[in-house]
Amino acid sequence: MELRDDQPMAHEFRRRTYLLADVEPLDVDGVRTVQVGTALFLLAFVALLPFYGRLAEDDRTWWLWMCLCGVALGLFGLEYCKRRRAIRTEREVLDEPAGRPDDAPTP
User: Fold this and answer.
1) Does any domain span residue 1?
2) Which of 22, 28, 29, 59 has its CA 20 to 30 A from that of 81?
3) Alpha carbon separation from 69 to 65, 79, 87 (Å, rounded)
4) What is the pLDDT of residues 28-41, one digit of tens each?
5) Is there a domain that residue 20 lies in?
6) Partner residues linked to 19 by β-bridges
7) How far apart are CA 101 and CA 72, in angstroms?
């Protein structure tokens, strides 16, 4: 375990100093985010189905169609994000230098 005492970067803007910590993003490729959003739209669609009669009376059936469109667009976005992740992974593999890995001990 490596203990470092790196100081965060400081940026000055309009007489204020902002500190920026070096933090890795949680979801780089967005697949998990799109999965959760699509699942929530699907859950909302299923939850609204029993109330179709009431929605029709109040002229709000568009709620159902909005949820269904959210699921459809989410599935499209999920495929897009998965392809983008595969391309980024492929590029990272191609960009790695040939030879021994960084973890290998030196003779």
Assistant:
1) no
2) 22
3) 6, 15, 27
4) 789 999 999 999 99
5) no
6) 10
7) 42
